[in-house]
Each structure stands twice: as C-alpha cells, then as structure tokens.
Design brief:
- With 456 residues, this protein is mainly alpha-helical.
- The protein contains 18 helices and nine strands.
- A three-stranded antiparallel β-sheet has the order 1-2-3, with no helix packed on it. Strands 4-5 form a two-stranded antiparallel ribbon. It has a two-stranded antiparallel ribbon with strand order 6-7.
- Helix 4 packs across helix 6 and helix 10 packs across helix 12.
- Its main location: membrane.
Amino acid sequence: MAALAALFSLFALYLAWYASADPDPSPADESPIALAAAEGPASGATAASGEAALQGDAAGAGLVKRGEYLARAGDCIACHTADKTRPFAGGVSISTPFGTIYTPNITPDPDTGIGRWTDADFLRAMHEGIGKGGEHLYPAFPYPEYTRVTEHDVLAIRAYLNTVEPIHYAPPRNELSFPFNLRWLMVFWNLFNFDEGRFVPDPKQSAEWNRGAYLVEGLAHCEECHTPRNIMQGLKSADRLSGATMAGWHAFNITPDKTSGIGAWSGGDLTRYLSTGSAPGRANAAGPMAQVVEDSTQYLNDEDLRSIGVYLRSLPPVAGGETRARDQWGKPVQDDVTNLRGAKIAGVDGAQLFVANCASCHAWSGEGVGASAPGAYPSLIHNSVAGAGDASNLAMVILHGVTRTTKDADVLMPEFASQLTDDQVAAISTYVTRQFGNPAATITVDQVAKLRGQQQ
C-alpha cells in the first residue's frame, strides 16, 4: 500500500507538471454552426433602457431556443429520462462490464438536480468530466465527445435546462464493483482515453463538412455506439465508426465502405433515415437507434442532416469482412405457404412460425406492405437487419419489437418475448435470414437466451 501511495503521488506530481507546462490545453472556442440570434443586449450610452431590456429578453429567448435544439442534437433526454412523465430527472440504468450506472437528475431542482450548479460547474462537467463537487464523472456520460462543444453552445444547453420543470427525484446509487466504484481511478482512464479541448474547424474543408464533423464528433456523439471499445472500455480510434455491440444490439458500420458501411447510400438515403428512421431498400431503425431518431435526429434541420452525411462519407472506409452489402440480400419466396398446406409439422418449424406470427404484416413473400409510404410494414428483402452477417439484431427485434414515433409516422411492431420461446425465436430468425436475407447468418437457442437476458 505504501508503494502504491508513493506511485500515485508521483503520478499526481506528473499531472500537475504537465498541466502547468502545456501552454494551450484547449484549442480556440470556435463554432462552425451559425449561432442563434443575440449574444446579449447592445450596450451604449445612448441606448434607451427599455429597448435594451427588450433586446435582453430576445437574447435570452434566442439562447434558450438554441439550447433546446442543441439538447435535442445531443439526445440528452434519452439518457436522463427513465420515466417519460419526469423528463430529464435521470434514473436510466446503463449496464457496463463493471456494474450498473444510473444517470443523474439534470432538471433545475436545487436538491436532487443541478439547480445549484453554476455555469462554470456545468461547463466543467461537459468539457472535463468533473462534477460540481470535484468528483470524476464516469464516461457513460459522453464527456469525451462533449468536450468538443463550444462554450457558447454548452451555455445555451444550460439556459434551456434552466427552463424545464424542476423535478425532485434522486436516482438510485450506482452499483459498481470494487475498485471501479473509486472515482479517482478515472484519472488513469482519462490519461489514455480522453483529450480535453474544443472543436476547431478545418480551414481546408467546407463549412458543411465542418458542421457535420462538429455534430458527429461532438454533440451527436455517434462514436459512443458505432465505435468498438478497448479493454478499458475506451474507444478504439483506429476503428472509428466501424460498428460495435451494446446491450445485445449491433450498431452497424457507418464509414463509407461500400460493402460493410454506408458507402453505397446516397445523401438522401441518410437524411431520410435520420429524419424518419426509414430508408426503404436500405434499413429501418430499431432498438437504440429508433430512440435516437425519435428523440434526437428527427428534430435536426435539413442543413445539419446533410452535413452529417457529407462528413461521414468523407471518412476513411473501414472494411468489416462482408462480401456483400447488408441491403443487397434476398428475394421473395414463391411456395413456402403452399407447401405448408396440409403438411404435418413436427417440432419447431421456422416457416410455420413466420406465417403465423410475421406474415400478416410483412407478407408471406417477405415483401412487406405499403412499399415506401410512412408507416409501411417494411420489406424483409434488401433489409439491413435480415441481410446482416449476424442475426442478433433480427432476434432482438423479434424479442423487443419496434417503437418509433416521428413527425410523419407512428411505427409499432409488437414484442414477442412474452409469446415465443428461445427456440421459436431462433427458428424464425434463421428462416428469415435464409429466405429473405443472408443465409449464412444463423442463431442458436443459447444465443437467443443470452440476448433475452440483456438489460435494455
């Protein structure tokens, strides 16, 4: 213990020296996104006080409105709302390899929320991952991305949060095993996985590219789901946005690789997917991505959605080993229903289960109903979930269903976890991938049981 204490003291001295020796630890606070109106009221000896007050009110309203938009871009409500009747009151459980973390209350309640936080406290949390009491925050809160958000935008978010209803609610305490419940250990995690500093636009790139980079790398924190993690659960920078698995769901490769990623998608495909959750012939959002669309990306304006696409398609493509794009598999079945007529079924049969549970919406041919209309029952042919090399997402959709409400459609697929056994889910999944998707993607009963047990 004495040796450990001595090593830690030396390390602390090193950190102090490093901080003092760094002449500019934070790049310039520049914003590539056009700022909302009003930095503040005009000050001048001749300005009438009434006019200045009106300008101040307009500035405050503009800042709050911008903050609401930015909070949507950052999807703050998803992680900080366990109960939709108590928005931003926290309590969402996040399962990690080290235990369960519960998200905090960020309403302006003075006792259980952030009502007593100063702007400096809020900036420090967003930019440095340090709480009001000086404690290190766990990176389930994506401060490694939020550190890139400009000070002006962070304060706009704070201004908006100050206007939401204060809710007196204390979320459960974290359930982390020793030694991961010792927050000071985050010093070492940050050393290897966190670079503090604001986003700086690249003058060699267009304003649209910089806008997309600012969103993807910062507020939208796309890497948190789409980038694989290292042994410390930090992000593998060498495999940025190449896909990762969280809570049983696989977040697909969104680099511009034409086979494994979104290289074959048009700008319109991506914009439609982010704004509605559906890109016919490509993909339909389910699981955590459906929630992202519902709570966040559908509210982004067209300029920001286009910018995200411009930036993503400019990145280095990362191959995932697939030989055929996920959305290029499948053809309609011809005679499965006919063959079932009068047939004696023994045991668990995927075709029979599909016709009984799925065909009424997706059609027995797998072609769906409604084509590309909002709220259509999607085709299982040319579908990224059915055509994936891993059938886990397909099984998760069967188990948990789909709920996605956007401005143009209310999409609902019922969950079958309470109605189908693990071997039945495995049989349907394997039938769907064999008939309509990637026939190499199968799933076992044990794998379904493991997915069923994943905390959502």
